[in-house]
Amino acid sequence: MPSSSRARALAEVQKAQRAKERRSRFLVVGGVSLVVLALVGAVVFAVRTESANKPSLDAVKTFEGVTATHVTTPVTYKENPPVGGDHNPVWLNCGVYDAPVKNELAVHSLEHGAVWVTYRSDLPAAQVKTLTDNVPDTYMVVSPVDDLRAPVIASAWGAQLELTGADDPRLEEFIQKYRQGPQTPEPGAACTGGSDGTDGTYPTGAAAPSPSPSS
Fold first, then answer.
1. Whole-model pTM above 0.85?
2. Most exposed: 41, 135, 160, 204, by fewest CB within 10 Å?
3. Are residues 128 and 71 part of one domain?
4. DSSP labels, 10-68
5. Please, which residues bridge with residue 62 across strands?
6. Do 43 and 131 belong together in one domain?
7. Same domain, 112 and 178
């Protein structure tokens, strides 16, 4: 075969090889792109599904301009249970109570970032157990309230949500959002070392074992 023919043949082979390599790269890049798109689609779908299934907190009522003066006398609150306002210099120890607690002490705990879950005094024992078993161990107050307008009400400083019962899925969402939430005036302040809130007196600032940062 003449050298010119061999050169042409070699050039054709090289051209075909380059075309094959381009097709291979295209297939690899295309395959990777499809995998990436599939993964992105799966993530987006999962996020949208989670958002769609997440309980809505649209029914939460918020309150602006809540006062926070320390007083040693009973306070009449506009909301029942209260969501903030003037309160006793001593805070309520966070925990579960089987009797009503003093509002003025519980409000001080709200100021420290606690969520206060109140329930009707006649709520079935099984639902009360559900509440006490499922709420977090810290910065939570659970107590009964006579003649509560809803079976269960969750309150934080400046925020409140009426619930249909102990198994209402919005309770967990409320706790996650508002316990030590951005609306908290004194996040991280003590929720122990105060008062159990069930005695018949209103502690004064002098009686507090260790004052709140706002005292």
1. no
2. 41
3. yes
4. HHHHHHHHHHHHHHHHHHHHHHHHHHHHHHHHHHHHHHHHHHHHSPP-TT-EE--S---
5. 159
6. no
7. yes
